[in-house]
Amino acid sequence: MTRPILTVQNLGKTYPVKKGLFSKGTLVAAEDVSFTIHAGETVALVGESGSGKSTVGRCVLRLEEPDSGSIEFEDTDLLNVSETALPALRARMQMVFQDPLASLTPRHKVGKLVGEPLLLHATVPPREIDAKVAELFELVGLRRDHAERYAHQISGGQQQRVGIARALATNPALVVLDEPTSALDVSVEAQILNLLMDLQEQFNLAYLFISHDLAVVRLIAKRVMVMYLGQVVEAGPTEDVLTRSFHPYTRGLVSATPIEHPLEVKQRINLTGEPSSPIDPKPQCRLVSRCPFARPECSQEPTELKEVKPGHFTRCIRFQREHVDGVWNPEPVTV
Question: What is the mean pLDDT of residues 217-233?
């Protein structure tokens, strides 16, 4: 197999916060996150709001500066790249945002917005920018006359197509897609997902796909990582993770999602109770306050992400100790 286009190792990101009038704490947004993406592959990050998935995506592009870990993109150590060299690398890494209208400057026509990266990175000579913009519009399913409109004059789906065209303008190898269809109607969502998959096949693009929608993730991603309070709690091939989940949090997500095929294990769970605080978290399972399978050791020991079957990783202490041949169906307990 060829080398990954992106390798992230032990990525960590924290933010200082106030805990009280005279005390400060540390909010852990991402902790010990590791993954790879190959050219032409889609890897998904899923989880609730506040799980840290968007923070990871922004750190990969160095829109946020990680506190720890390493990021290697196309054989370049991103965290040791100078500010002057970073723009050239950013041309090869682009992002498509959740809210297409908010990501497009309202003062300029969308044709100019798509042409800006071409001018900034000198991708084509200035006299050829208009022709290239027209080519990009056609590529994403927009008419040439759309270039003369402002963002508020086109539909949400068309706005997202403009965002995708802008991301493709610099011929990227990696695109971070941060909830790119969550603001769209179902029929438009399907069109955008089909467009993304067609573009990936045409240009061999690598996608980091950030979402909370398991049905969408199942359609588009080869591998998936499930995040909870800054940690990856389960990771592996998408079909395997969604149909044979080992971590209670993943099972809870699947239980709440109407996907085509249910879990192979018939047991489904509801996650109740208040989440643990991400500020100065204790060295324990972060799901312990909501998990119906929790035991005393879950609140007394730190958790590690371990491979429990080829390519499938989980952070659940109980599963790692009690499963037999990859099967685990414990009864809920009251702690």
Answer: 95
